[in-house]
């Protein structure tokens, strides 16, 4: 009798657990990949925080598939956090708030977020998943971007672009930046960032 009661309780718990909603997975269109080889990256951008301290770098190259591959290596971030990460329209990182970078890179005039039926911005990128050591080191793809002169998707246009890390996760839906909060890290991309 005791075993039968125990079995019924375990079964009921299992069935109850099946009804719970799973959290949204990151968008499949822009998968993150572990860093393997970075020598092919042609542009190097230093990342600075609001105090002006260097906290990592970004490297960029044309992807073999589509758009650009972006290698980000950063430290001194909130351990275990999920942080919004975007390409902004101007290559300017004036401290302390980095508002000089303007809005998201959005040459196709779309709404914000991978889950937005009217979106997404070309500069929308997957959230950064920070390790327990406060570091992140990944390569991700931005399919709607380019380094080709004359392309409306070129992030290296006359005023450049900036890479911004936000204080909270991007919800992949809400305009203008997914409720991701303040801009805490910035890296400015201009014609001077090309590797020698």
Automatic annotation (TrEMBL):
| Matching PROSITE patterns | PROKAR_LIPOPROTEIN (PS51257)
**Does the record carry Glycoprotein as a key word?**
no
- Describe the location of the Superoxide dismutase copper/zinc binding domain by residue ranges: 56-188
* EC number(s) per entry: 1.15.1.1
Q: What are the names of the required cofactors? A: Zn(2+)
Recorded hits in Gene3D superfamilies, A to Z, give: Superoxide dismutase, copper/zinc binding domain
Single GO term (MF): superoxide dismutase activity
The domain of life for this entry's organism is Bacteria
Give the signal peptide as a residue range, or say none if absent.
Answer: none
Family statement: Belongs to the Cu-Zn superoxide dismutase family.
Q: What is the protein's name according to its record?
A: Copper/zinc superoxide dismutase
The organism encoding this protein is: Bacillus spizizenii (strain DSM 15029 / JCM 12233 / NBRC 101239 / NRRL B-23049 / TU-B-10) (Bacillus subtilis subsp. spizizenii)
């Amino acid at each position: 009798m005791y075993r039968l009661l125990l079995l019924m309780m375990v079964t009921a718990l299992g069935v109850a657990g099946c009804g719970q909603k799973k959290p949204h997975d990151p968008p499949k269109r822009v998968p993150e990949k572990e860093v393997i080889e970075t020598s092919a990256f042609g542009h190097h951008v230093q990342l600075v925080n609001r105090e002006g301290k260097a906290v990592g770098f970004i490297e960029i190259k044309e992807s073999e598939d589509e758009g650009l591959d972006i290698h980000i290596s950063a430290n001194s971030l909130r351990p275990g956090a999920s942080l919004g990460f975007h390409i902004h329209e101007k290559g300017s990182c004036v401290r302390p708030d980095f508002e000089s970078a303007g809005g998201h890179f959005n040459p196709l005039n779309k709404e914000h977020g991978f889950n937005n039926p009217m979106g997404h911005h070309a500069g929308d990128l997957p959230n950064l998943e920070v390790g327990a050591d406060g570091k992140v080191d990944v390569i991700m793809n931005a399919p709607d971007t380019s380094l080709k002169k004359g392309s409306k998707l070129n992030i290296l246009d006359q005023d450049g672009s900036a890479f911004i890390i936000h204080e909270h996760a991007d919800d992949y839906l809400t305009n203008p930046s997914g409720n991701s909060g303040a801009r805490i890290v910035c890296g400015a991309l201009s014609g001077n960032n090309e590797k020698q």
